[in-house]
User: Fold this.
Amino acid sequence: MAFTVAQIAAALGAQAFGAVDISITGAAEPAQAGPGDLALAMQPKYAAGLALGQARAALVWEGADWAALGLEAALVVARPRYAMAHLTRLLDPGPRIDAGVHPSAVVDGSARIGAGAAIGPLVVIGQGVVIGAGARIAAHVMIGDGTRIGDDALILAGVRIGERIVIGDRFIAQPGAVIGSDGLSFVTPQTSGVEKARQSLGDQGAITRQGWTRIHSLGSVHIGDDVELGANSCIDRGTIRDTVVGDGCKIDNLCHLAHNVVLGRDCLLAGQTGIAGSTVVGDRCVFGGQSGVADNITVGDDVICTGGTKLVSNVPAGRVMMGYPAVRLDQHVEMYKAARRLPRLLRQWGGEKPVPKTGQSD
Assistant:
């Protein structure tokens, strides 16, 4: 699909200059841009790339002399990266899923499919399922009995959605995501070593040989509107009460929300983040890649965790956390600086011989 520079400017709320009737069919980095691409030269450091590519039009920074850069047209916005969200949406056709129900799909007669929905090949939809209007469901998706999915969902190949799940409007699930699997809920006949260690901070006491007995997951998963779930991510159903994901949450690939987790609105989870059971997370929290959150704790609103952070206790609202165990970012930096100084201090005050240098300073 092609758009003129003028049409793109209207969609982005951008200022347009030059030949606004140029046709644009895609977007590209400046050096790789062809004549039909909008080059993304959003900062001065990308200007040199324009000479290497063939772009006639570009998204440039405020104050750029676009004509001197050899362009025939330019778009200018106050916040270019935010404009990219609207641009990519405009240019993304999405996966091709033909309207209607594919002949190979298995849809229970009691299921209700909304107007304009597209059900791809080899999809299985169980009893009493409700699919909203305009939903697109790609190949090999399975949706369990009694599940309800809102309008305009995009559920990509191989997604598995369990029974009795409730999902809001405009939900996106990337390939391989699983919603509604059982949680890790097991108990021993007598007090387990884990329980003893937690109470004593490390001492198991007398060790008793015993196996694990399943606590079945009777709860569900409730997902709000405008939630996105990454490839191969998993959300466990609750044990008794539901696992909850608030409106607007964006969850990356290979993330895991355990049973009974409550995730507030507009949270962002980067890849390989895991949140353990029964933890409550506030609104607008951000977790960098490989972050981890212990079970049964509370994380306040607007908490930010850098990559690899491990939260093991409650965190007040507004904190920026880093490290394992996690501490405030500024405190972690001071701790790191202090640790770097330890070898030098030991040499100065302990009389130890210097360690051979490896190319790094103390």
Observations:
- The domain at 3-91 is CATH 3.40.1390.10 (Udp-n-acetylmuramoylalanyl-d-glutamate--2,6- Diaminopimelate Ligase; Chain: A, domain 1).
- The first strand starts at residue 3 and ends at 4.
- The mean pLDDT is 94.
- Residues 329-350 form the longest helix (22 residues).
